[in-house]
Amino acid sequence: RGTDIGSAINSMIATTVEAMYALSEENRFLEVTYANGDKEVLYFKDFSSGAMIESVVRRAKKLALKRYIGRGEKGIMADDLLTAVREEFKENEDLPNTTNPDDWAKIAGKKGERIVYVKPLMGETKEKLRSVERVVNTGQYL
């Protein structure tokens, strides 16, 4: 039985790591423009830290505890970890201070070319989805 638990834990870790470090549309964080005109997309993984991982685990534990209190289901589930990753990324979407792009070069570990502009990307996918929601029903005119 211990092997089953170990396999489940390893599977949850792998799933969570994949969600955090995937080069997916929803993980796009910033687009930086360098002085030479080149642009680069930075992902949340580029700003990952032990503190961020600790926060994901803390959030997952909190979700599991709420579920246990509400429904009596014990233990952390993969969905708890994935939800925690999304919540952590959402909380950090306001992180960039675009007034000082040079600071982002230091934080992101990019050396050489100077960053002249930082554009947050988190809301872009949401904006694309929201544009469909803006259809206004004008009702009937008499």
- Tell the overall outline: elongated
Major β-sheet annotation: 3 strands, antiparallel
What ranges have pLDDT less than 50 throughout 5 or more consecutive residues? 126-142
The percent of residues in helical segments reads 40-55%
Structural class: alpha+beta
Structure commentary:
It is a single chain. The protein has 142 residues and is an alpha+beta fold. It has one domain. It is built from 5 helices and 3 strands, in the order αββαααβα. A 3-stranded antiparallel β-sheet has the order 2-1-3. Helix 1 runs parallel beside helix 3 and helix 2 packs across helix 3. The relative contact order is 0.17.
Can you give keywords for this protein?
three-stranded antiparallel beta sheet, alpha+beta, 142 residues
Short description:
It is built from 5 helices and 3 strands; from the N terminus they run αββαααβα. The protein is an alpha+beta fold.
Helix-strand blueprint:
Blueprint: H1 2-21, E1 28-34, E2 39-43, H2 50-71, H3 78-92, H4 101-108, E3 115-120, H5 122-133
